[in-house]
Specification:
Order of helices and strands of chain B: HHHEEHHHHEEHHHHHHH
Number of domains of chain A: 3
CATH topology of the largest domain in chain A: Four Helix Bundle (Hemerythrin (Met), subunit A)
Number of strands of chain B: 4
Distance between the termini of chain A: 57 Å
Shape of chain A: globular
Helix content of chain A: over 70%
Largest sheet of chain A: none
Oligomer: heterodimer
Radius of gyration of chain B: 21 Å
Number of domains of chain B: 1
Helix content of chain B: 55-70%
């Protein structure tokens, strides 16, 4: 692993911790944005340009704008005082988080302990992807041929979500 | 080592080329405005007022660095930095020539060669919202917040029609790679070059309108709106911090001009008639294949630069010709006119491409 990636990982971890513990909503949102951009940079450095670009376009460029826009619009300046420390809830949350994180780490370590898992590679090594005409081409081919139905189902689910949110928002206004 | 030095050289070309054009553009904007309004314009510093940007810079540097009370200092300082970085990063993907030979090695004249190409530019165009939002919010001033809200909703709205216009061109080229796009545009349609703008004129027009909105230029400068919002989102900025915003606007204009040249106007593809000049020079100096390719690269750079210059001139021309939109008119234009037209155009172009390819 290159030292640049390690530095980016450290920065993104620091930003994530800041995001969790800060009291101002806009700092929290901007730290999340920083985490997303750092992850995109890591994807880019390991050669996955397509995923890096999509991360920037979709998450950093669209979703986080919406987050920050609504925080600004609602002007949540007083909510800094709304964060009351409830020790019981905090400990419960901490325990749940540690459990989930621990199981993920355990599962990954277990996976790589097995020699066979470590050495069997998938169908797409970086050489085959390059020979097939680049990452974006391979991904689009897979999406629009093999996974066409699931792709359409996901887009339908998004449409349902949009219609649902409009209906919910309308009811409140009327 | 050779790769690293070539990469550094390309980055320097991009940075110097872009940031070096900014003072010239500032001068041209002011002289051009004066010319269009029948005034003289700045003419005291140097011949034709050419040294005026230098005087401006000295003024900017010696101004007091002032932070308004109640401002969030960290975000207040971060906004102009992001404003300048985002368009400069996007320029990394735009090729400024096909290839050149240095010391017998082939060098592709583009900083970042990645297979997502123009999509990467869209990613950084999306990040241009943040300086507007951050500057407006961190200054803690009613006018800046209003300007930021207007500016960000405008950028978000016009990004959609811009993306759809870009998508219609991606369907035509069948590639994200800007080099493929330029080589596709090399042919000719009878007496006109086969440029994207002639293949897909509606898409080109929508894209052109959208980049005005994306760069916050008149008639879409509602984020600044001097007569209503004093100066909009950068009201509380002074000195070099304001200069950073000012430079960012021009860098974004250069980036947008380079993008529209590459997508719709042949990119670095040499202008008609230049082939003759290349042959003449190559024959005169008796260049081999390597020398000829290098001469061609120079002319390709000149072609791209002149296309960018035309679009920069159009930016200035439109700014001092059209009045500002009202906010509801702006939103109507974005959502009710450009968005449906771009969507229909995308369908039509897709059908056309399918018809011509089969």
């Amino acid at each position: 692993m290159s030292p640049v990636i390690i530095i980016l990982c450290v920065i993104s971890a620091a930003l994530a911790v800041t995001m969790l513990f800060t009291k101002s909503p806009i700092t929290s949102a901007l730290c999340l944005l920083g985490v997303l951009i750092m992850t995109a940079a890591i994807y880019g450095l390991i050669g996955e340009h397509m995923i890096a670009t999509l991360q920037l376009v979709v998450y950093a460029g669209a979703i986080m704008v919406l987050f920050i826009f609504s925080i600004m619009l609602l002007n949540l300046t007083d909510s800094e005082n709304d964060f009351k420390k409830k020790p019981f809830v905090f400990i419960l949350g901490l325990a749940a988080g540690i459990t989930v994180f621990g199981s993920i780490v355990y599962a990954i370590l277990n996976h790589f302990k097995n020699e066979a898992n470590d050495k069997t590679l998938g169908a797409f090594s970086s050489e085959t992807v390059l020979a097939l005409g680049g990452n974006s081409k391979v991904l689009s081919h897979a999406l629009f041929s093999q996974y066409y139905v699931s792709f359409e189902v996901v887009s339908l689910a998004l449409l349902v979500a949009v219609v649902g949110s409009v209906v919910l928002a309308k009811r409140k206004v009327d | 080592m050779f790769d690293l030095s070539m990469m550094m050289a390309k980055i320097v070309v991009i940075l110097v080329g872009t940031l070096g054009v900014v003072p010239v553009m500032v001068w041209f904007e002011r002289r051009g405005a004066a010319w269009m309004q029948g005034r003289i314009g700045p003419n005291r510093v140097g011949p034709f007022g050419l040294m005026q940007p230098l005087a401006d810079v000295i003024k900017f540097i010696f101004k007091e660095t002032f932070t308004p009370r109640g401002a969030n200092k960290f975000y207040y300082l971060m906004a102009p930095i992001i404003a300048l970085i985002a368009p400069l990063c996007a320029l990394a993907v735009i090729p400024f020539g096909s290839k050149a030979f240095v010391n017998g090695h082939e060098v592709i004249l583009q900083v970042a060669q990645m297979d997502t190409g123009v999509l990467f530019i869209l990613a950084f165009a999306g990040l241009e919202v943040y300086p507007v939002i951050l500057a407006g919010w961190a200054s803690r001033n009613k006018y800046t917040v209003l300007g930021a809200l207007r500016g960000s909703s405008q950028i978000v709205s016009y990004e959609i029609s811009m993306g759809l216009a870009l998508l219609s061109m991606l369907v035509v080229y069948g590639s994200f790679n800007p080099h493929d796009m330029v080589s596709w545009q090399q042919g000719s349609l009878g007496f006109i070059p086969r440029w994207g703008a002639f293949v897909n004129p509606i898409g080109a027009l929508i894209f052109w309108i959208s980049i005005f909105a994306e760069t916050n230029r008149l008639p879409f400068d509602l984020a600044e709106g001097e007569s209503e919002l004093v100066a909009g989102y950068h009201l509380e900025y002074g000195g070099m911090k304001f200069a950073a915003f000012f430079m960012a606007e021009y860098v974004a204009m250069i980036m947008a001009s380079a993008l529209i040249s590459t997508l719709y106007f042949g990119g670095y593809g040499i202008l008609p008639g230049m082939e003759f000049a290349i042959n003449l020079i190559s024959n005169f100096f008796a260049f081999g294949e390597v020398g000829m390719q290098n001469t061609k690269a120079v002319f390709e750079f000149i072609s791209l630069a002149s296309k960018i210059a035309v679009f920069m001139f159009l930016f200035v021309w439109v700014r001092w010709t059209l009045p500002r939109f009202r906010f509801d008119q702006l939103m109507d234009l974005g959502w009710k006119i450009l968005f449906p037209i771009a969507l229909i155009n995308l369908v039509v172009v897709t059908i056309g491409v399918y018809y011509f390819n089969s």
